[in-house]
Amino acid sequence: MANDKKMVEAITSMDEDFAQWYTDVVLKAGLIAYTNVKGCMAIKPAGYAIWELIQKQLDERFKATGVENVYMPMLIPESLLEKEKDHVEGFAPEVAWVTYGGLNPLTERMCVRPTSETLFCDFYKNDIQSYRDLPRVYNQWCSVMRWEKETRPFLRSREFLWQEGHTAHATAEEAEARTIQMLNLYADFCEDVLAMPVIRGQKTEKEKFAGAEATYTIEALMHDGKALQSGTSHNFGDGFAKAFGIQFTDKDNKLKYVHQTSWGMTTRLIGAIIMVHGDNSGLVLPPKVAPTQVMIIPIMQKKEGVLEKAAELREKLGAFRVKVDDSDKSPGWKFSEQEMRGIPIRVEIGPKDIEANQAVLVRRDTREKITVSLDEIDTKVGELLETIQKDMFERAKAHRDSHTHAALNWDEFKNIIDNEQGFVKAMWCGETACEEAIKDETGASTRCMPFAQEHLSDVCVHCGKPAKKMVYFGRAY
After folding, report:
1. Residue 291: which of 14, 20, 30 has the closest Cα?
2. What are phi and psi of 327, to 5 degrees?
């Protein structure tokens, strides 16, 4: 039994040190490995399989709304990056530059894409001539590079995987509609697939994307009470179109500028899944993104008929992502491993179970054990996976709601930020200087101005001037 214990003890408790718990989980559950490339990680099969399931289900949702996938170059010439002033200023500190091609210095240095607005704009300039060419609703799945100082696996790495949508429209209304449509698609995806409740809203002027007219966001609350921006959608208006000269001949035969949007989600979502659902035994994966949904663990597998029965069960449960752990490790060790990897259901089957024509199902999320007849195990497993998915969302929502506080004055605000964890809802005057002062004094940033506005009071929580918006504040990753 000593070995079984040791394996679980390898994970630091969340309450003791949340950051260390997180690092232990990503390493022990085999999601990543560190590399010799500073700030970049190797994503191992267990981690990449989660990303593939995210990618597949997100991509299906995109295509249902008319999105087409394309691919753009990885390098951006400096002159192109500099065309939109706010944009280049926003990204300049994080850009990695290529200065040599082979043995020769380049006449113009190129950056490794931190994001691809400028490439899409350069492409659209030639691709769009007439109103008949609109809308263009393109997306690419790729990696980007941002030279971050502090890195943490999945949450902030120098190279990360993502999708970036870039669209062009004939009117401002169409662009705004697409921006909101994609934000809602992201929010529904997080809630339905990742079992992660999110707040939908708009970023403040200070927090919006460099070069955007408006940025919309979904914000999630992690187990330690910190916020995580989990997806953003930007309306560019015609700013980029003017900088790059993207014009089209409209129905009235006049030349007009297109209106653009961009939106993205990244491998950071894997970090969110870990921090919203994980526990002290490791990962807890929502069934819809669990690479293995069911792990069959034969008990006393040396006994005659046990392994055969396990194989037979795997066939019967073929509709799910199912595996048999027939390694020569002890059942206790296998249980710990299955728990650490976050596999939603464990099926235990041994000689006594076979004799009684039954198996024991164990839920990863609640550890509840359910004995089921082998005749109806496939139906029961299907129902249980649905229940787990639903329960995980409800639990995460209850956690978020119980860690969302309202502050009516500055003393309350400071007290909540210092002594409670989670979101703080408060009224704000709309002034960037005030927002910056709040962050300087408490470390809490504005997460978003939610679409679902509430009137908590008439005055700003910090400066006492008339309030314009109710805002979610929080310390964030």
Report:
1. 30
2. -65, 170
Evaluate whether 392 touches 415 at the Cβ level (below 8 Å). no
d(CA 464, CA 313): 66
Q: What's the distance, CA 268 to chain centroid?
A: 5
Reported as a single tens digit per residue, the pLDDT across 432-448 is 999 999 999 999 999 99
Strand stretches in 299-357, DSSP E: 322-324, 345-349
What lies within 8 Å, CB to CB, of 177 at 6+ separation is: none
- Locus of tokens 């309202």: 406
ω before 114 within 30° of 0 (cis)?
no
> How many Å apart are CA 287 and CA 294, to the nearest integer?
9
What angle do helix axes 268-277 and 377-402 make, rounded to 10 degrees?
90
Q: Which residues contact 20 (CB under 8 A, 6 or more apart)?
A: 12
Residue 287, SS3?
Answer: helix
Distance from CA of residue 333 to its chain's centroid?
A: 31
Instruction: Kindly report, residue by residue over 32-70, the tens digit of the pLDDT.
Output: 999 999 999 999 999 999 999 999 999 999 999 999 999
Ordered alpha helix ranges (H), 10-110: 18-28, 45-64, 78-81, 85-91
